[in-house]
Amino acid sequence: MALMHEIDFRVYGDDMQFVEIELDPAEAVVAEAGGMMFMEDGIQMETVFGDGSHQERGTGLMGALLGAGKRLLTGESLFMTVFQNRGSGKRKVAFGAPYPGKIMPMHLGELGGEILTQKDSFLCAAKGVSIGIAFTRRLGAGFFGGEGFILQRLQGDGLAFIHAGGTVVERNLAAGEVLRVDTGCIVGFQSHVDYDIEFVGGIKSALFGGEGLFFATLRGPGRVWLQSLPLSRLAGRIVAAVPGLTRGGREEGSVLGGLGRILDGDNA
Prior knowledge:
Elements: E1 8-12, E2 18-23, E3 28-31, E4 36-39, E5 43-49, H1 53-57, H2 60-73, E6 79-85, E7 91-96, E8 101-107, E9 114-118, E10 122-126, E11 130-135, H3 139-144, E12 150-155, E13 159-165, E14 168-173, E15 178-181, E16 186-190, E17 194-199, H4 203-208, E18 214-219, E19 222-227, H5 231-241, H6 258-263
Antiparallel strand pairs: 1-2, 2-7, 3-6, 3-10, 4-7, 5-6, 8-13, 9-12, 9-16, 10-13, 11-12, 14-19, 15-18, 16-19, 17-18
């Protein structure tokens, strides 16, 4: 059984938040590169292969290789950073949000031990939490999911911190209840929520409605978290507002590049 590090935390700010984590001696958190805001004396950084959870879970090198290999396929780094308190007393380390929104603490043990999130939403987590990649099961979701094509799988029973853009809405779907959502507006959901991609419908709505040709369908039971400002939408508006600045052919999280932007309704 995995040994999750028990950590204390506090979230500061309103729209541009950061989370301050207090670590007891030998406690640690794991984070993607570039998220650290500050750390007190006594905190030491270590770059690890994968997320470091194989050390806690005892899965060995092969488990680390498989997890890191999936991250490499999706353009993620093979390495993450562990921040550990090597001092004799409590020490603090903080991580900042990358753009306006909310930082959400997720206690995985209270959520069934696993959640799926947008690929770029992970901020940091207690060491021992496994941060992997979940490829969607259905062909429709694979080719037309836009931001929702590649999902992160967070597993364990400790705390993980997720960042969402804009305002966050939590929905608790009943068994069989269906929610249709723009793919980029999904922050995450419990693993037993059924996820698929569906065609919008009429050709007129698809071409002129401005919402893209496809949307995500979430079917309960389970909890779902939504965001009002996906990163791709924010980036698209910024690029459109800067004269002479053009965007590359690769849509973040999309396997279709420029076509993916049209399918997702982002024609800026």
